[in-house]
Every structure is written in C-alpha cells, then in structure tokens.
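in:
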C-alpha cells in the first residue's frame, strides 16, 4: 500500500491500494469522500470555510488550491471522483478536525473560531450535496492526524500529544 499526504489546501486521490493522510489538522478539516462501489477516495485538507476576498475581485489566486476552502473543496472532490468513474449514489464522507487550538482565558473570540466555522461549512455543504456523513471526530482543542485506508474505508485518527488513536470502522 502506498501512502499519499495532503498538505494544507491540497486534494489527493487514491484507489483501493492507497492510504490517504492529512497531518496537523488543528482548525483545518480533513475530509474524505469515497465511493463504496469502485473503492476510490479523495481527501481534502480544508483550511477555511469560504473563499477570501481578493484585491480587485481577482479570484484566480483563491482557485489555485480548491482544497483550501470548504466551498470549493467538496465540488473538486466530487469532480475528481466522477472522473474516476464514481457514482453519486455510492458516495460517503468522513471528517476530522476543526479544533480551537489557541484559546486565551478571559477573551471573547466568539465569531472568529475558524475550526467551528469549518465544521459548520463542511457539514452543511455535504448535506446540500446529499453526500452522507458517516462519521466525524471534530472540535475540542487538540490537533489530529488522519489516515484513510481506501481498501476498507477505515479512518485512523491520532489526536494531539496524547497518542490517542481512534479507528472509525463503520461505512
């Protein structure tokens, strides 16, 4: 089996011989969409909930890495899976991440928690696109690393420094 790693903003694809990995998921979301029938998957390392405003309305910079934003990552993942022969009725998803990494006592940061905004955005878009969210491990205040084995659709999640490993087996 070959491991492929998605860095921030990247979308990677794999078939049943591959393991898809995303590390250092703090406020970012690691989102896997996979096809049960053809045993193919994509993993997006999503950093932000939506496209950022750019000077003079130039969106080209934002679109160079569609995996960076929830609003473009899910569409790109579906496009790549379709190109591999996936059918929408067989698509499923799993997500992890969305932590509050830097909280300071006594400070009110309501409205700016990127992790929470990422979770809400990803879950809402998956729902709109009718892609079932099978499992999630989100929120909290620790970083995560995920490893998704395409062959059996298992997601292994390592949390923070505690070396906690969670196996999400259901599909």
């Amino acid at each position: 089996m070959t491991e492929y790693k998605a860095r921030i903003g990247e979308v990677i694809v794999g078939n049943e011989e591959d393991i898809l990995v995303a590390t250092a998921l703090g406020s970012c979301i690691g989102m896997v969409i996979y096809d049960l029938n053809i045993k193919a998957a994509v993993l997006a390392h999503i950093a932000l909930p939506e496209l950022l405003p750019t000077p003079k309305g130039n969106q080209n910079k934002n679109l160079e890495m569609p995996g960076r934003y929830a609003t473009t990552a899910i569409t790109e993942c579906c496009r790549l899976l379709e190109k591999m022969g996936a059918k929408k009725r067989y698509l499923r998803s799993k997500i992890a991440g969305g932590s509050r990494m830097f909280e300071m006592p006594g400070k009110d940061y309501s409205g700016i928690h990127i992790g929470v905004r990422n979770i809400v955005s990803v879950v809402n878009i998956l729902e709109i696109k009718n892609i079932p969210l099978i499992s999630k491990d989100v929120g909290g205040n620790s970083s995560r690393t995920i490893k998704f084995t395409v062959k059996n659709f298992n997601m292994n999640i390592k949390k923070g420094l505690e070396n906690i490993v969670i196996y999400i087996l259901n599909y």
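note: DSSP finds three helices and ten strands in the chain.
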